[in-house]
Amino acid sequence: MAFTDERRPEILTPEPHPRANSAAWGGPFVMGLLMTLLGIVALGAAFFTSMVTAILFGAMLAGAGVVEVISAFRTRKEGGPFWLYLLSGILSVVVGLFVLVYPAAGLGALTLLLAGYFFASGLFHAITSVMDRYPRWGWDFFYGAVSIVLGILVMRQWPISAVWLVGTLVGIGIFFRGVALMAGAFAVRKVLRTGGPTTPATVAR
User: Fold this and answer.
1) Strand-pair partners of 11
2) Which listed residue, 18, 20, 84, 123, has the most CB atoms within 10 A of its CB?
3) With contact defined as beta carbons under 8 Å apart, do 32 and 178 qualify?
4) Alpha-carbon separation of residue 102 from 42, 69, 94, 97 (angstroms)
5) Is 201 helix (H, G, I), strand (E, B) or coil?
């Protein structure tokens, strides 16, 4: 009885093009670098960043109010909550226009809102972490304590804190977002480099 040793041709997986590899991580890296630099600039000009943030917030609030008013008249034909949408939209438009006309006052109100959020959030984290005592509860307690102190400091320094708080938070957010994008780009680059060329897959006889 004769045995035949037949092998199918090897299947070669094409290697990814070097330009494709560079595009996979280069674009996010450049975007992350630009965002990091933008965050540094925003931190250096905290007051300007705060004013721009207040103006954008007012514009977005007014725009959302207009959309809500339009939705109120559309839902009226279907028997929807007409007055709820209408009054809520008018309120959003009025508050948004007020922030656009008086951005400093809107910035002060936004700062008080953030201070109250820091205090309430920190108090919640501190109390729940002490009561539950789950694993690594100390980190949540530390976060809560820092948030409480930050909220109290912002309230005590108001309205001076309105000059730097919002801009600083926005700058920090943009900065760390850029750092995260660069870290992700380096991770993709490492995977592409350590992966190496794909070895030919030989089909079993």
Assistant:
1) 201
2) 123
3) yes
4) 21, 23, 12, 8
5) strand
